[in-house]
Amino acid sequence: MSLVAVGGYGRAELSPRSDLDLLLLHDGADPDAVAALADRLWYPVWDLGLALDHSVRTPAEARRTAAEDLKAQLGLLDARHLAGDLGLTTALRTTVLADWRNQAPERLPALRELCEERAERQGELRYLLEPDLKEARGGLRDATALRAVAASWLADAPREGLADARRRLLDVRDALHLTTGRATDRLALQEQDQVAAGLGLLDADALLRQVYEAARVIAYAGDVTWREVGRVLRSRAVRPRLRKLARSGATSSEGWWRATGGPSAAESRAASGPRSPKASWNRTARWCSPVPRAPNATPCSRCAPRPPPPRPDSRSPRTPYGAWRPPHAPARPWPAEAREQLVTLLGSGRPTVDVWEALEAEGLVSLLLPDWDRVRCRPQRNAVHLWTVDRHLIETAVRASAFTRRVSRPDLLLVAALLHDIGKGWPGDHSVAGETIARDVAARIGFDRHDVTVIATVVRHHLLLVDTATRRDLDDPATVRAVADAVGAQGTLELLHALTEADALATGPAAWSAWRASLVADLVARVSAVLSGDAPNPPEDAAPTAEQERLAIEALATGAPVLSLRARPEPSTEPSGDPEPLGVELRIAVPDQEGVLPAAAGVLALHRLTVRTAELRALDLPDGVDGSVLLLDWRVAAEFGSLPQAARLRADLVRALDGTLDIAARLAERDAAYPRRRGVVAPRPV
């Protein structure tokens, strides 16, 4: 008999609260003795309070179980002898590995499907604020799957940084188990500061960046490895066709290549043409090569001529397009062709993401854009944001590529999209810091002085349109004039408009809506009119409607607030044709007195009403009516549930105005009643 560690125990990857995966292996000669020994082994482990996953099998039974259960087979691949008959363990390992290699063409696609299903359920580890270190894509499960692929001998994972990435995730899981005292793999928000302290890291952001970096390495290694597995399996599948071609005497290289599953000549030209992301990748890498020396100069070891780069295969997975790791960044400023190829890459749409990930993995991005290191894998502790800062910048460029026909300078739009949040790697206002960085990067890339100024201005004011449109009164000429002064030119305005939409779409579904789009478009139209010199005259105050006069007279007569709450038909501005609910109209008439606006706003907050628009005016009453009335027109929507009754709103407003309702105290009391998450520290302002 022998005692064998399998799974995580077999890999020596146990964390403080991990299960023990044990297999008692026997030859089947004496079942009673085996059962007695199993009891003597298992019960002491249970008495210690340790979680135990155990089984008792003969080698034949273990082999049969592995053939039926892929997960059991994966666990046996990591079998490690603990005690007893070493020969029995060695024979099982040899048999299981041989079976795995023989069954690899059928087993590896099933393993890949398991990985994809798990990623669909758990998401991308490198983008989650509360990631599952084990199950999410790029986590420990994927690292284990890569070991299994390597054991099949069909393909191997990129080795650079992979072992270190796995070790870092294991260290974080160890600290998480020690902090929580539980067998958990989910790095919850309330535990992150304590885990970071246990690992000697500065804060929770530093912890997440370390986790994201490790996950990125593992995920990229998985992409490369599974791509290679697919290539190998396709080549095996077409061998009968190759033999048939050989017997038929076919000599066409095109036919031979198509028989092996490769693309046609036309497809190859389209995939590697001068405007493709792949071609941009290669040319960008080439501009990072050393500066050529004079013909008679003796090259140093760093600048010596290099052999042609190898064709990507399983032996060189870190060079996905045949590029090499360059020794230094390109000259400053960049050559015009290098700048054009960067713009081409950014404007290629969704394929840009995969190419940029390859550039990141090869270290080219840090050479091209040194400031990128400060935003790489930087978390954004905001429920609206789906991505880390660096991925958000690429997603914004992808979104902006769809708007290049709306602007006169698409190159400036794409570069501004890439740089608009680059200042988040520095303290203070990220727009201000980003302006300085964008100015330097744009000059380094090779834009002229005017274009550098435009890019810097767009980065500095990339939040201006949406903030102004949703928080300020667009009917106020001073508001429109302030935006026009900040923008300065029509070309800059159209760039800002396109970037505003691309930024919001890249942030997440909650950041953009038809309502926001209509407000921003309205503001852009008004600012454009000012910049073109044909701004309309300020509108005169409209005469009060009959309803407004009725409310005002009633408020004067009663000496108390009067409310009117009713729905209004919504404008059909939704691009899809479905109107977005913008709330209902709330009209309040109050005899003129101090504190009306804060009291009304407080009552709305107390009843959980979101204010979409607000307008305050003093109403001119008909002749013969003395007194002054304030009229407040609101557009409100309930945060959840149904709208409150108008009578309740009026009663609370009366109490707020006479001082018997302490709104601040009520709001503070409600806020204190919310459940608090232990250990959460507010993120630093950016």
Please write out the topology:
Layout (H helix, E strand, L loop, with lengths): L1 E4 L1 H4 L9 E6 L5 H17 L4 E6 L1 H10 L1 H8 L2 E5 L1 H17 L1 H19 L17 H13 L9 H19 L8 H10 L5 H34 L1 H10 L4 H7 L5 H7 L5 H10 L49 H11 L4 H11 L2 H5 L20 H12 L9 H10 L10 H16 L3 H12 L3 H8 L5 H11 L2 H18 L6 H18 L14 H13 L3 E5 L17 E8 L4 H11 L2 E11 L9 E10 L7 H13 L4 H11 L13
Helix pairs in contact: 3-4, 3-5, 6-7, 6-10, 7-10, 8-9, 8-10, 9-10, 14-15, 18-19, 18-24, 19-21, 19-24, 20-21, 22-25, 23-25, 24-25, 27-28, 27-29
Question: Could you explain how this protein is built, in words?
Answer:
With about 675 residues, the protein is of the alpha+beta class. It has four domains: about 1-100, Beta Polymerase, domain 2 (2-Layer Sandwich), CATH 3.30.460; about 105-240, Four Helix Bundle (Hemerythrin (Met), subunit A), CATH 1.20.120; about 370-530, Hypothetical protein af1432 (Orthogonal Bundle); about 545-675, Alpha-Beta Plaits, CATH 3.30.70. Helix content is about 55%, strand content about 10%. It has 29 helices and eight strands. The strands form two sheets. It has a four-stranded mixed sheet with strand order 3-2-1-4, sandwiched between helices. It has a four-stranded antiparallel sheet with strand order 5-6-8-7. Helix 2 links the parallel strand 2 (about 20-25) and strand 3 (about 50-55). Helix 3 (about 60-70) packs across helix 4 (about 70-75) and helix 6 (about 105-120) packs antiparallel against helix 10. It is globular and about 110 Å long. Residues about 265-270, about 285-325, about 570-580 and about 675-685 have low confidence and may be disordered.
